[in-house]
Design a protein that fits this description.
With 110 residues, this protein is α+β, with helices and mostly antiparallel strands. Helices cover 16% and strands 40% of the residues. The chain contains 2 helices and 7 strands. It has a 4-stranded antiparallel sheet with strand order 4-3-6-7.
Length: 110
């Protein structure tokens, strides 16, 4: 297309936005790993971009939205004890230190 030039300031702005923790929870959830899943007694959670925050609050909710477990984690690779949960499907939610939702992941407990 003639007459249109790239504005170098747009690239700089894009770079600044990408480093200020403005993330889409759906996109972040794609990179979070729960293993094993389905799980029985525990699940390991790996958050590759964890270093962007000091800590995370992990909540596990049932499919009705009731919170059944909450745990604070301080590292990118943590285990969560599932022994107190009934067999079923759950959603694992991750919140940053400002209580902003950063991801949702499905979890199957058996």
């Amino acid at each position: 297309v003639s007459g249109i030039q790239a504005d170098p300031n747009i690239r700089i702005l894009k770079k600044v936005i990408s480093t200020t923790n403005l993330y889409d929870p759906k996109d972040l959830g794609e990179s979070v790993t729960l293993f094993p899943n389905p799980a029985s007694s525990y699940v390991k959670i790996f958050i590759p971009w964890f270093e962007s925050w000091n800590q995370f609050t992990i909540e596990i909710v049932d499919l009705c939205g009731k919170k059944v477990l909450q745990q604070t984690i301080n590292g990118s690779n943590q285990s969560i004890d599932l022994s107190g949960l009934s067999t079923g499907s759950y959603i694992v939610r991750g919140f940053d230190e400002n209580h902003k939702l950063q991801f949702n992941k499905k979890l199957q407990k058996w």
